[in-house]
Amino acid sequence: MPYRRTPDVQARLDAQRELLLDAAVRLLAERGYAGCSVAAVAAAAGVATGSVYRHFPSKAELVAELFRRVVEREVAAVEQASASASEVTDRITAVIETFATRALKAPRLAYALLAEPVDAPVEQQRLVFRQAFRDIVARRISEGVAAGVLPAQDADIAAAALVGAVAEVMIGPLTAESADADAIPTLCTFAIQALGGSACDTPPDGNGGHHAAHP
Question: Which of 37, 66, 76, 140 has its CA 20 to 30 A from that of 132?
Answer without folding.
Answer: 37
